[in-house]
Design a protein that fits this description.
Length: about 475
């Protein structure tokens, strides 16, 4: 199950970085023609979508669903918008879309809550990576084909893990993770959450509430915690996956939930894994991203690992680490990583979407779709074919989001097309090229040339169909997702 890769905590950090040379200036470059066999027919049926980002009101989280007719029309849909400008629940949408030959496309959504444009690239399995693509907002997320047979409380009964990120009062970073079990009436029979509220840590907080769904695939959730009641809207992808957006004005949160299937033990977290996490360095007010590969033995030990950091433009690469972990039978575990930079504490929740992660250190606030099981060893040929790519980052106090499509040759190079939204500054359909160096552990250095200028990435292969990455440049803190088309 692919996992949504957004890191909204970037925008909650007060930052002052140097913008990468050439940013926003790519419109003078010629438009390369899209290559491929995609058409409007590749977007057909019911889909759920979600993204987080930034608009004029500040932090932005959106989730919704639409029906595409395979011929360029959005015939129906709804969306929930959580923005500093306004909270708009259950707003109707209609619109049009266009799919280009390379799988990149655009959706225009018309709604009483405001019109919007989504730029996307189709990847395998009924999924697409998406960027909000107009001068009113920016953001990154995913679009996923819906399974309508899961639109019932009975289908969703059972256990889920979730992570949510956003801002609390005063626009300070907030991340929440947890687990819950619901019955066939949509009532939570058990649950607990963990949170990091700008360095204020709460763990193992009991949670009650309800999470009923309607026959449209849109549900509402009320989660009662020690912080008070949190309310959400959510959209069902299938019986194992929910897209979530907060309905409170503050805290404003967005995220996802994934099915848990026990029993759980230390063997539930047996590596190797690729991972990325992102958020904020609370001590310095910087955006922060980290990624790496981790080997665990299934018995509570992280036997080896290597990690890369970008802390507000201060970069450290190939940092070795070890650690320990302990999984409880309820599906919640703890993970401690020991590096030369210090010791880091995280909560982990194994799920159908990978091992979700929430950091509970007072100096750092990160979360992510972190641990993805690798199928190592890897060669250059493991990274071969056509892929969609999406990344989100922070630079100069603003957010930058992008989607692209490219072909990797399985040797050392790639070529494609990229679209960029630099906080409302649109760069569309520009050439992207790059090189990569393969390693057997799946940690590959990748250099890109885009309208932003030279970009240096570290890519962590999950398998031949999926990779995650971070950027290791001084001018942009970014993290992203790569999926085969």
């Amino acid at each position: 199950m692919p996992v949504n890769k957004r890191f909204p905590l970037f925008i909650a950090a007060a930052i002052a970085l140097v913008t990468i040379a050439g940013c926003g200036g790519g419109n003078s470059i010629s438009f390369p023609p899209p290559q491929g066999t995609f058409t409007n027919a590749n977007l057909n049926g019911p889909f759920a979508f979600s993204y987080t980002g930034l608009d004029a009101g500040g932090f932005l989280a959106v989730a919704g669903s639409f029906v595409a007719d395979g011929a360029g029309h959005i015939t129906s849909g709804t969306q929930d918008i959580n923005s500093g400008a306004a909270v708009s629940p259950n707003a109707a949408v209609s619109g049009t879309y266009l799919v280009r030959a390379d799988g990149r496309g655009a959706i225009t959504l018309n709604s009483p809550a405001g019109n919007s444009t989504l730029d996307f690239v189709i990847v395998a399995g009924g999924h697409a990576l998406v960027t909000r693509f107009d001068n009113r907002a920016t953001g990154s997320g995913t679009i996923d084909q819906q399974t309508t047979s899961a639109f019932s409380n009975t289908a969703l009964a059972g256990s889920f893990a979730f992570t949510l990120s956003g801002i609390d009062t005063g626009s300070v970073p907030l991340a929440v993770g947890g687990i819950f079990t619901s019955d066939a009436s949509g009532t939570l029979t058990s649950g607990l959450d963990d949170s990091n509220n700008n360095g204020l840590i709460v763990t193992n907080d009991p949670m009650t509430g309800s999470i009923p769904v309607t026959s449209t695939g849109r549900g509402t959730a009320t989660l009662n915690t020690s912080r008070g009641a949190l309310t959400f809207a959510y959209y069902v992808v299938d019986a194992n996956h929910l897209k979530i957006v907060g309905a409170n004005t503050v805290p404003a949160l967005g995220g996802e939930a994934f099915r848990q299937t026990g029993p759980f033990s230390n063997a539930s977290v047996s590596g190797p894994f690729a991972f990325t996490i992102a958020g904020a360095d609370l001590l310095n007010g910087n955006p922060f991203a980290a990624g790496g590969v981790l080997v665990s033995d299934g018995a509570g030990n992280v036997t080896s690992g290597i990690e890369d950091f970008n802390d507000g433009g201060s970069v450290a690469t190939a940092v070795p680490f070890t650690g320990t972990y302990a999984m409880a039978p309820n599906g919640r575990g703890t993970l401690t990583l020991n590096t030369g930079a210090g010791t880091f504490s995280l909560i982990v929740y194994p799920s159908s979407g990978g091992v979700l992660v929430l950091e509970i250190d007072t100096g750092f606030l990160t979360s992510g779709a972190a641990l993805q099981q690798q199928t190592a060893p890897f060669t250059a040929g493991s990274f071969q074919g056509t892929y969609g790519m999406n990344f989100t980052g922070a630079s100069g106090g603003s957010e930058l989001d992008s989607i692209s499509e490219f072909t990797a040759d399985g040797v050392s190079s790639l070529n494609g097309i990229i679209d960029i939204n630099n906080t409302g500054g649109i760069t569309f359909g520009q050439p992207m090229s790059g090189t990569f160096v393969a390693n057997a552990n799946g940690r590959n250095a990748m250099s890109l040339q885009t309208p932003l200028g030279p970009q240096s990435m570290i890519v962590y292969l999950v398998n031949g169909n999926r990779a995650v990455f971070i950027e290791v440049d001084a001018g942009l803190v970014a993290a992203g997702d790569i999926r085969r088309q």
